[in-house]
Q: What sequence folds into this?
């Protein structure tokens, strides 16, 4: 594979010490130093939330905890959790801790039900956000001379502007293409010599496919890095995009409620883990049912407390994302804790006839089958009174056949593989190449049509 650029060349040969580290005094600090910074900032943050946000003051008073009870990092467990509901109930400004004339930007996540979640940032919050972004893009080998084509929609969604400001502050040339119009995106890559593409992984694959149809030789393209976000990216999907587009792809993790993109990012040394910006976030991993901490390195639900975020202080936010976190030093030289990439969101889980099913499990099974694309859709209904799951699987052109027997055998083989992993049976429906709708934003893999 062609490795384009000095930073990526160094990474490809394991020379991680040649890669830039944005802030080594934090990113390579000892655990003691990181924890000391976290504790000092946590104490300030809890006080800030208590003094300025009635919602926190009421909950903390009810729990019998005051800011002066926070003396160690472990004392964070004395604080109540915050969840999405709290931000919905206080829509739009109830959780704000600064006067609105100090707020310089507003973002929101689209609520699938009810009100959206609104978050605001003051000037200091914007600086903090840009710092997080500068770290994670440099982990991916992005350098100030890069030309970054932003294929995220700008709008209220945090992904577009969040990455834009940090990349621009690093010195990159920003090309604000926005989402959609794939042929135009490809034309812009060629005209402007874009070197970095920011998009969801599924949209990058779509750009790749359309480019191939247009006769683009991606190996000769100026593009060298893909910065992904907005939806989970399986290793198989990332590997496929890297191979076909001749680029290096990393993804980052974040959520609107605690800031947006930039909570953690993937380095090039260990591709399944993401470094957490620990001086800006305290992480906890808890048992999703009991809320109690799990042992270090064990899977559980990620809980985040942003530090130094002033417009909306959020304490112990329950992400519903399942991960595990390790703290040993990484081969890239960084010492900040690393979280495993989030594959399943605990609230994305489907319960089918009493069994938990994650869309990521379906994705894993499909990625191991030749002849199918990474595009799929799960449709659940209970028209017959019983939960019924149908998985729409898109075929690659070479897997398509005129023989009904052959196609039916292929379909049944996929059903059997899915049953082996999911433990519940499902129906597979084969869809012709290109038959599953592509999305320019977050891909919706699940359509739940069940009536209560
Ligand atoms: Zn690393």
A:
């Amino acid at each position: 594979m062609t490795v384009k650029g000095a930073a990526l060349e160094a990474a490809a040969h394991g020379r991680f010490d040649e890669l830039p580290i944005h802030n080594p005094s934090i990113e390579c600090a000892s655990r003691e130093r990181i924890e000391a910074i976290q504790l000092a900032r946590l104490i300030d943050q809890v006080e800030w939330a208590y003094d300025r946000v009635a919602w926190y003051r009421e909950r903390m008073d009810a729990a019998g905890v005051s800011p002066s009870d926070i003396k160690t990092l472990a004392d964070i467990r004395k604080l109540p959790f915050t969840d999405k509901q709290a931000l919905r109930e206080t829509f739009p400004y109830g959780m704000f801790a600064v006067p609105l004339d100090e707020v310089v930007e507003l973002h929101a996540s689209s609520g699938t039900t009810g009100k959206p979640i609104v978050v605001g940032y003051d000037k200091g919050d914007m600086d903090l956000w840009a710092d997080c972004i500068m770290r994670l893009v440099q982990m991916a080998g992005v350098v100030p001379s890069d030309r970054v084509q932003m294929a995220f929609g700008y709008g209220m969604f945090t992904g577009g502007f969040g990455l834009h400001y940090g990349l621009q502050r690093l010195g990159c040339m920003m090309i604000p293409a926005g989402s959609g119009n794939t042929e135009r995106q490809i034309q812009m890559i060629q005209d402007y010599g874009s070197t970095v593409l920011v998009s969801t992984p599924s949209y990058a694959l779509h750009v790749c496919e359309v480019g191939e149809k247009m006769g683009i030789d991606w190996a000769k393209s100026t593009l060298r890095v893909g910065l992904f976000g907005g939806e989970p990216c399986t290793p198989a999907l990332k590997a496929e995009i890297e191979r076909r587009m001749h680029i290096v792809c990393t993804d980052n993790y974040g959520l609107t409620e605690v800031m947006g993109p930039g909570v953690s990012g993937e380095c090039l040394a260990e591709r399944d883990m993401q470094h957490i910006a620990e001086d800006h976030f305290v992480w906890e991993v808890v048992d999703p049912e009991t809320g109690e901490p799990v042992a270090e390195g064990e899977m559980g639900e990620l809980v985040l407390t942003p530090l130094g975020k002033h417009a909306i202080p959020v304490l112990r936010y329950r992400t519903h994302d399942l991960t595990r976190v390790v703290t040993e030093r990484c081969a890239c030289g960084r010492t900040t804790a690393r979280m495993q990439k989030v594959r399943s969101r605990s609230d994305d889980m489907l319960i089918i006839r009493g069994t938990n099913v994650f869309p990521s499990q379906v994705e894993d099974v499909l990625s191991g089958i030749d002849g199918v694309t990474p595009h799929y859709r799960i449709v659940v209904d209970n028209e017959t009174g019983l939960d019924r799951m149908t998985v729409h699987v898109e075929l690659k052109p070479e897997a398509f056949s005129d023989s009904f027997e052959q196609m039916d055998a292929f379909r049944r083989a996929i059903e059997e593989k899915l049953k082996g992993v999911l433990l519940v049976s499902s129906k597979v429906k084969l869809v012709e190449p290109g038959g599953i709708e592509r999305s320019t934003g977050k891909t919706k893999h699940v359509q739940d049509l069940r009536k209560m």
The chain has a mean pLDDT of 92. Residues 147 and 271 are 24 Å apart (CA to CA). The first helix runs from residue 6 to 12.
